[in-house]
Design a protein that fits this description.
Length: about 200
């Protein structure tokens, strides 16, 4: 039995240039649904977003879509999700997705996916939430980002314990296992260290 009731999936509104991205998106939807985990995502029927929802729905899973009204008006919301939440802004969308979820998985995507990923990771660093966040590194998509996180850590802008909070795997089952076992870094010690630096 999973410790997660709901997992939020961040991913692209396009398909990208490799069939592996679409296969991974459909597969993660199926995997979560088969484990009795509700999928929370951005509510659209396009790209990898719609594919994640299709995967979960194909095996009878529950899917919550959270979509800004401006995108509903463009008629790209997924018609088959079990629960569609229409909100007034992108900011409200991101907050609601975090509030509805016990954990987060980022698949390949563009600027929007990076925005969601890094805001959620920053909130974890600051102790706004203590929920695990994983990267599903499909066909090496996130290799460059992982290297950049190492660079930020090596140059002193990211603390090692916070870099380690971003869980990276190419296998979705292994990623879920690591997310299940995740323990957030101790916020108090980090704040004490920051205070010591400015004294």
């Amino acid at each position: 039995m999973s410790r997660f009731q709901s997992v939020c999936v961040y991913c692209g509104s396009g398909f990208g240039d490799r069939p592996e991205y679409r296969e991974a998106a459909f597969g993660i939807g199926v995997l979560l649904a088969q484990r009795g985990i509700r999928v929370v995502y951005g509510g659209a029927q396009v790209g990898l977003m719609g594919t994640v929802a299709d995967g979960a729905l194909s095996v009878g899973g529950k899917v919550v879509g959270v979509i800004p009204r401006v995108l509903v008006e463009r008629e790209i919301q997924h018609p088959g999700v079990t629960d569609l939440r229409v909100v007034e802004s992108m900011h409200i969308r991101k907050q609601m997705m975090v509030d509805l979820s016990d954990a987060f998985i980022a698949l390949p995507g563009g600027f929007g996916t990076m925005d969601e990923l890094f805001e959620t990771l920053t909130w974890l660093q600051l102790g706004v939430h203590s929920k695990p966040l994983g990267l599903l590194n499909v066909s090496g998509f996130y290799d460059g980002l992982v290297a950049f996180v190492r660079q930020m850590t090596g140059t002193g802008f990211v603390r090692p314990q916070h870099a380690a909070s971003l869980l990276v795997e190419s296998d979705p089952v292994r990623l879920l296992e690591r997310m299940e076992a995740f323990e957030p870094p101790a916020l108090g010690k980090w704040i004490e260290a920051m205070a010591a630096e400015v004294r």
